[in-house]
Amino acid sequence: MYDTARRVELVKRQIRKNTRRRQKRGIGRLSAVCMLLFAALMQTADRLVGQGQTAAWGGFGAMLLHEDAGGYVLVGVAAFAAAVVLTVVCMRLHEREKQKQKHEEDAT
């Protein structure tokens, strides 16, 4: 039979193991969402950007001066906004996990 200290250590080890497993699943889900978002943005860019100039003549940024560049700008802004939202969600989840962990440590 285990003493109390050993049982507490085993329980804490199992909690850490479950937490790591949950975090890995979360990372996998976020990666899948990012890939789906990337695919959706590529489809959007394909539909929004019309047939126009395909090469930048005369230096960097010449493509943005072309009349069909609005789709590229729109997709860029949408991707940035999605990244900001995803970052904020991840930060909030991380803070929530920190607080849960702190409450678990205080309870022990």
Helix-strand pattern? HH
* pLDDT averaged over residues: 79
Q: Measured on Cα atoms, how large is the radius of gyration? A: 24 Å
Fraction of residues in H or I helices: over 70%
Largest sheet: none
Structural class: mainly alpha
What global shape is seen?
elongated
Question: Which parts are unreliable, with pLDDT below 50 for 5 consecutive residues or more?
Answer: none
Distinctive features:
single chain; 108 residues; mainly alpha; 0% strand
Walkthrough of the structure:
- This protein is mostly helical and 108 residues long.
- It has a domain at 34-107.
- Helix content is 77%, strand content 0%.
- The chain has 2 helices and no strands.
- The chain has helices at 4-48, 70-107.
- α1 runs antiparallel to α2.
- The longest helix is centred in the N-terminal third of the chain and has 45 residues, at 4-48.
- It is elongated and about 75 Å long.
- It starts with a helix and ends with a helix.
Layout of helices and strands, plus pairs?
Blueprint: H1 4-48, H2 70-107
Helix pairs in contact: 1-2
Short description:
The protein is built from two helices and no strands. The chain has helices spanning 4-48, 70-107.
